[in-house]
Specification:
DNA-binding transcription factor activity, 66% helix, Arc Repressor Mutant, subunit A, elongated, WH_DNA-bd_sf, two-stranded antiparallel sheet, single chain, 2 domains
């Protein structure tokens, strides 16, 4: 018996839902590597004999596998295993582990958020500006990471483009280096002076958006994020030196 035929041997315990049981068996063979991209599945008749099921059950199972993007049927030729679908990008605590990871995210943010600031300065409403001002006040009062995240999300919302919001929301607290590492401490920087510089940078962004000056908003955001990257780079060098 060849490997493909062996992959279709019925499970020891018959599933109450025969079609779902067949889907699970074929899916397991695909994920386990017994069935590889490009392999042709046995004919309906062969699968029916192997699993003791009807043609209707086989066709229902194949339909489910097609909907899941696991196989493709070419009429008159057969059903073939597809390349696994690409996994969506997910940035989480599991994927952001090092300062180098946070530096890479900052590079992404420089490209993304400088344009968001430009659009926000062009499109923001008075209500959105007021919400940014409230978040800025919270940042000034305590340097809260939560308020910092909110400030950046509010700018994304003011673009009127939900995709900016979606991406920054997915990044979550990972968009703020202070949420991952104590940058001031690692860079041997005075915490009060560090927060004062960060606060001034936020104020420059807010002032430009308030004036509806897109170019100044873009420049202020780029300065803020580039400075954040430089502060984090120095922190990384400090760690490397200590090691």
């Amino acid at each position: 018996m060849n490997d493909i035929a062996a992959a279709f041997q019925p499970p020891k315990k018959r599933h109450r839902n025969l079609a779902q049981g067949l889907v699970e068996a074929i899916t397991a063979s695909i994920k386990g590597g017994e069935l590889k991209p490009g392999d042709k599945l046995p004919t309906e008749s062969v699968i029916m004999d192997m699993h003791g099921v009807s043609r209707t059950v086989v066709r229902e199972a194949i339909s489910h596998l097609q909907a899941a993007g696991l196989v493709q049927t070419k009429h008159g030729i057969g059903t073939f295993v597809l390349e696994p679908p690409a996994q969506p990008l997910r940035i989480s605590a599991d994927t952001v582990r090092t300062i180098g990871d946070v530096l890479a995210i900052l590079e992404l943010r420089i490209s993304l958020e400088t344009e968001a600031a430009w659009l926000a300065a062009s499109r923001r409403s008075d209500a959105q500006l007021a919400a940014m001002g409230e978040a800025l006040a919270r940042i000034r009062s305590g340097g809260s990471v939560e308020a910092d995240v909110q400030f950046h999300l509010l700018i994304a919302q003011a673009t009127g483009n939900r995709y900016f919001v979606d991406i920054l929301t997915d990044l979550g607290t990972h968009i703020i280096p202070r949420a991952r590492v104590n940058t001031a401490h690692l860079a041997h920087d005075d915490p009060a002076q560090y927060l004062e510089r960060v606060n001034r940078e936020h104020e420059d962004i807010y002032d430009a958006i308030s004036r509806k000056d897109p170019e100044a908003a873009r420049a202020a955001m780029r300065t803020h994020l580039s400075n954040s990257r430089e502060r984090l780079r120095k922190a990384q060098e400090s760690i490397a030196g200590a090691a």
